[in-house]
What we know:
Helix content of chain A: 40-55%
Largest interface: A-B, 24 and 24 residues
Order of helices and strands of chain B: EHEHEHEHEHH
Oligomer: heterodimer
Structural class of chain B: alpha/beta
Strand content of chain A: 15-25%
Strand content of chain B: 15-25%
Strand order of the largest sheet of chain B: 2-1-3-4-5
Amino acid sequence: MINPRDLAIRPKIALLVVITTAGALFLSAAATGIYSRFALERGALRELQVISEVLANNTTAALAFSDEVAARKILDGVAAKRSIVAAMVHRADGTEFVSYVREGFEGEILIDDGDRAVGPAQKIASQYLLQSTPIEVGGRELGRLTIQADYSELNEYFLNTAWILVVIALFSCMAAVLFSFRLQRLLVQPILDLASVTQQISKEQDFSLRAVKLGGDEIGDLVDSFNHMVSEIEEAARALRESEERYQTLADASPVGLLRTDAGGNFTYLNERASEITGVSMNEMDEAGLLSVIHPEDRQEVGALWREAVAKRVTFRGEYRFSQADGGVSWVLSQARPEFNEQGELLGFLGTLTDLTYRKRGEEEREALISELEAKNAEMEQFTYTVSHDLKSPLITIRGFLGLLEKDISLREQKRIESDMEHIESAVHRMTLLLDDLLALSRIGRVMSPPEDFSLAELTRDVVALLSGRIDQRGVEVVVDPELPRVFADRARIEQVMQNLLENGIKFMGDQEKPRIEVSLRREGGRQVIAVRDNGIGIDPAYHLKIFELFDRLSLDVEGTGIGLALVKRIIEVHDGNIWVESEGVGHGTTFCFTLPLAEK
Amino acid sequence: MGSDDSVRGEPLTVLLVEDNLAHAEMVKRSFEDHRVANKIYHVSDGEMALDYMFRRGQFADPSTSPRPHVVLLDLRLPKIDGLQVLKEIRSSEDCARTLVVILSTSAAETDVARAYEYHANSYLVKPVDFLRFTEMMDDLGFYWLGWNHFPWGEAGRRSES
């Protein structure tokens, strides 16, 4: 069922016109009809009455003189009136005097009754009117005249009128409708135009269109208001567009990352900078969740801070890392605000990312430098301390034995004199060695030859040849692995290293009957390690670090200034390598292990 | 020449813990002309020092390794550090009361402080001047044996021998 409110304007107006016009016309037709009916009726009645009175008058004489013929003649005069079908005069006693019946009338005669009451006409049986009029002379009633009129003609007449009225009404109605169709254009056209413009604007979002004002009426006012509104919208749209463009430019140029996520943590917007920082491009945006690009170690903390921010409705603030697909890690300072809709539900986050990577890296580097500096400082202090002590010592010896020498000379203790001088000599020698080694040590890192690509196997064999005297003397078997790699280092220094290690191996053989030193290559933990192993007296694990310290000697029995391994360590470290010792303890041999930068293939 | 209660008559037994043989020689020589009779036992590293004190290994025989009156202890020793030796002596019930005199080349305040922290009885710095060295050794012996009273009485001493 169509809701009449949903009909288009034109049919609506048409319907309106039809209904009103028809209604009006028919109402007036009906009114007219009903009125004319009554009027007709009254007229007829009146007429009847008049006729009746006239007749009654006229027949008075006849009745008074009982002149039937005259009476009849008069009565016959009624024939002129077609509607009168019967007339009758009764005497005062009620008997019939004369009567008239129209020719051809075959209907019921109702006027027989002499006792019919006088008075206004009566309608009988919807077809006849009866009028009874007294005939009187000087106040004395002589008789009565009763007329029966057929007013069915009246009905016919009325019906005709009615039909005419209806037809007129109908035609008027149609004419009115047609007319209105033309006229409604005046009213409807502007509305339709306005409606069509509105639709067009809304469909094409083209706010430059305007409706045309056709008249000065309310529609015209409406058109004006409408146009004004559209202008405002146009202006607002333009301002919005400009603002958006400005924002976009700003966002693109921003050194700070801007982002937006939905409630689930998925990105809904990233500016260029944010894209760089997170490693998520604007195309991938839909698939990537914020959590997935955060560094695994930081995820829990960040998640907790988020939840707190949402629960307390405060700005989230935190420093954390993003790990990018290519393995890169960036540190950021992130500040984001949770957004809520009117119902208080979380819509997402809107925030900034500030790249802290440089700062963090700077901090890390600074920390590393500081601890390196501190370590170097400590080393320096230790060094100075040890040096002063170890130089003072031979000095004391020299002075001491010079004094003793003096005493012994005065006492002529020959043997003692010789021994004193030996002590002095050896102390001097010791000091010299010490100073030489110190110089060598201080030079490492300062005065080094440029690194070169050379074969470690070859170098080792050269060193073995150099030490052949001592090797043979002790009867040591030396095995050099041909797989030793090519290295990229200061050749002279590495020669010193190998010499020192091999010498130590020979020195600390102890009672070993089958002394053997092996120089080999080990592959462990992804790097190549050079190992110098001997089956000599070994080193107690407690001293595994101490032996690399300056001037720490484990045993007096063996010559040496104690600077050797410290020097070796320094050389290796300057080459960015590591050196360490492996030995289960006394009697189990020793293995010195170190790494060096390898030559590129 | 000292109090009546001193252990005069018995030689001053000194355990010299010194890794530098030349210095050890110097100390021994300077004790030769002492006013106080003495016997010097010399070990050259920290480990041997403790072995001696606790009568371990080669020093198990008390007749060849008598309890020293004084331990002259150098700080820088191979194997076991001087301070460590001191600490162990001090933490052993038997030896805790042993007189330990540090004899070191180092005059560094930190070393002195640390030595006293570990409860050394005295701290001596080896002077470069030989004469002063002998003087010092002489005074050392004289003071500790001449003037100083030892923590063990006659009874304790005898049970040790």
